[in-house]
Amino acid sequence: MARDYQQFPDDDNGNVLWQMYEDGDDLTEAHEIEFSLAFQSQENAEACALSLLKEEQKITLFQDEDTNEWFITIYVYMEPDYSDIVDLEDWFTKIATQYHGEYDGWGCMAYVYDDDLDEDTQPI
């Protein structure tokens, strides 16, 4: 199948979604997508985390032991749609900037199902 550049634009997000699609991931199914924000200070990270919790976002907050940076991961359960991801990236970028942090990208687990599995075969 030829790549549909309306659905999968030629940029980082479009390339990731296209690769997921090419790998057999069903992009019409909801995924838990993880968006990441990075902060230099614990105080700014905690203030941002509190703001996200008030917005009813599911998050984790942790410090990277190697870099001492603080990271917030926001978990959004959604269909991996290009325009929705871009909109959330914009929103998370604005929030991170308000608290002197930066948006650090997104990722998710790929859900690829093998319809050819024998009934007696269990996935590992």
UniProtKB/TrEMBL annotation:
Residue ranges that the Swiss-Prot or TrEMBL entry lists as coiled coil: none
Stored InterPro entries: RraB-like_sf, RraB_dom
Domain Regulator of ribonuclease activity B, first and last residues per copy: 11-108
Highest taxon, organism lineage: Bacteria
Protein name in the entry: Regulator of ribonuclease activity B domain-containing protein
Organism: Acinetobacter equi
